[in-house]
Amino acid sequence: MFPLRGVVRNFFSAKAVGAYIMVILIPAVFYSYTAFTGKSIFAVDITTFIVAVIIGQSVSYKLLEHGESSKSAQGVAIAAMVLLAIVFIVFTFYPPQLPIFRDPNTAQYGI
């Protein structure tokens, strides 16, 4: 039923690191290139997403292959993933009044 049980001891740590890499890379690249161009380019946005996912999953896979972590590290990783999910949900409905969360079409925040 669980083919990775007993084989992989750092699953949650690897997946947490991969998820955070993706979440950090996408806005970092977006705001970096729009600072130079002054506008967003749809093809670059899609490419950024694809490359960020490839990098995040590659790092996660390498950690799964070669990493070992303790139960406490796994607990921290699970807490980090839960925190990421909570922040995503809360910021969807109650975003901070910062430019990154402002809808460019309606100039409003949140749903």
Q: What's the alpha carbon Rg, rounded to whole Å?
A: 17 Å
Structural class by SSE content: mainly alpha
Task: Summarize the main sheet.
Answer: none
As residue ranges, the low-confidence spans are none
Oligomer: single chain
Tally of helical segments:
3
Notes on the protein architecture:
It is a single chain. The protein is mainly alpha-helical and 111 residues long. It has a domain at 11-86. Helices cover 68% and strands 0% of the residues. It has three helices and no strands. The chain has helices at 11-37, 42-66, 71-93. The longest helix has 27 residues, at 11-37.
What are its keywords?
3 helices; 111 residues; mainly alpha; flat
Kindly summarize this structure in a few lines.
With 111 residues, this protein is mainly α. It has helices spanning 11-37, 42-66, 71-93. Helix 1 packs antiparallel against helix 2 and helix 1 (11-37) crosses helix 3 (71-93).
